[in-house]
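Is this the right way to post structure tokens for a design question? Let me know if I should format differently. Anyway, here goes:
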């Protein structure tokens, strides 16, 4: 074999080995998308109606044109911020290499390859959670209004009176299944037996026998403070190993929280005529988790969210709070499961095509030899070094001219 040919084959071999080293191991070096690994894909949309309602409450004197102008501006900012917040939340779940990017005016594409069913549920809950933390007061007439409900035997759809004496509801799954209790349902629930400047909220609780109950409250719509000043959130456990969420505010948040608790403590500046403190409702994403009584001013900038939730749910809430709140409510308008079978078929087809193509290249680029040489020099087409003629074992009849030695190159 000529030296130039040998060098060419050696160079090709080095290139092949180097290329394989760059992509090996494949699962670590090559990023596979949904079509190859399977997974789930969401199309998330900014909830314009919910954002418009919030802006209207914050700007009661603005006309429709002004509100629309503010809404258009907020939508653009909310979409960009929501991309980063959703990415932070997905990272806390431990999903590797998600694909999250904006699309259009108010939509976000979220692609999560290679996630199992449990991770999909956790991701869906994290994306849908606005993580909007509010501290609001329980309405002073809440106890009176709740007594009226139980005196009349009233209960919102999906619930029934569990005990009129202890004033709690239990779930009525015959009237409404769990999967039907979506965001639209809870929006309607807040307006149940509507009262002025308040919303109807249910707080999940647990009896001594472990059964789940729901206690109704009328909570003021006015927000005393939000979780924007939240510095830290972590899961802690009480004396009976029950999980609770500990909150710590930054310096500005600590001052605001101290002012709220000072105002509504017994004989506080805004509760001067009462010997009892007001109840401070802790509301996360329109869900009432606890409503403790303010007994003394809290000056250290710390608070706790107690309630009936599992350790895993408490951890998810903490991760959502740490990642930050979404600037606007969002909704999932499309959810699509993607199977990796189509990608695997494409890979198999590609491998077959590559093997066939390489075979054809080798066949049609073999050195040309005389037909009369094939009986002894067939292997010479690929490796002249093993040719029988070159080794002296090839024999031809006297009538046939001996082929030139260059035929075996």
């Amino acid at each position: 074999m000529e030296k130039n040919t040998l060098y060419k084959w050696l160079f090709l071999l080095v290139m092949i080995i180097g290329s394989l080293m760059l992509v090996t191991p494949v699962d670590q070096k090559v990023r596979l998308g949904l079509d190859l690994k399977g997974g789930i894909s969401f199309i998330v949309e900014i909830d314009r109606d919910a954002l418009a309602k919030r802006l209207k409450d914050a700007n009661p004197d603005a006309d429709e044109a002004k509100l629309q102008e503010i809404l258009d501006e907020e939508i653009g900012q909310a979409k960009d911020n929501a991309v980063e917040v959703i990415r932070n939340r997905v990272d806390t779940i431990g999903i590797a290499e998600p694909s999250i990017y904006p699309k259009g005016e108010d939509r976000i594409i979220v692609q999560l390859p290679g996630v199992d069913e449990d991770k999909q549920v956790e991701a869906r809950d994290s994306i849908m959670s606005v993580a909007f933390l509010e501290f609001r007061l329980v309405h002073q007439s809440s106890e009176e209004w709740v007594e009226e409900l139980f005196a009349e035997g009233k209960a919102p759809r999906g619930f029934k009176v569990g005990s009129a004496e202890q004033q709690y509801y239990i779930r009525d799954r015959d009237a409404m299944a769990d999967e039907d209790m979506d965001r639209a349902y809870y929006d309607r629930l807040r307006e149940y037996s509507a009262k002025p400047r308040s919303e109807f909220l249910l707080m999940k609780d647990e009896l001594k026998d472990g059964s789940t109950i729901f206690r109704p409250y009328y909570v003021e719509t006015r927000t005393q403070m939000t979780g924007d000043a939240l510095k830290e959130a972590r899961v802690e456990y009480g004396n009976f190993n029950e999980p609770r969420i500990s909150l710590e505010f930054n310096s500005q948040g600590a001052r605001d929280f101290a002012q709220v608790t000072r105002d509504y403590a017994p004989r506080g500046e805004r509760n001067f005529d009462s010997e009892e403190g007001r109840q401070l409702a802790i509301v996360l994403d329109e869900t009432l988790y606890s409503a403790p009584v303010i007994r003394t001013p809290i000056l250290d900038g710390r608070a706790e969210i107690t309630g009936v939730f599992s350790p895993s749910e408490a951890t998810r809430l903490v991760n959502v709070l740490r990642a930050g709140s979404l600037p606007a409510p969002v909704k999932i308008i499309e959810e699509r499961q993607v199977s990796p079978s189509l990608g695997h078929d494409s890979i198999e087809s590609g491998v077959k095509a590559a093997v066939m193509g390489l075979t054809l290249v080798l066949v049609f680029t073999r050195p040309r030899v005389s037909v009369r040489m094939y009986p002894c020099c067939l292997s010479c087409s690929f490796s002249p070094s093993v040719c029988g003629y070159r080794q002296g074992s090839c024999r031809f009849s006297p009538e046939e001219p001996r082929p030139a030695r260059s035929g075996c190159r």
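Format looks fine. Someone answered above. Worth noting: Residues 38-130+326-365 form a domain with the Alpha-Beta Plaits fold (CATH 3.30.70.3400). The chain is about 35% helix and 25% strand.
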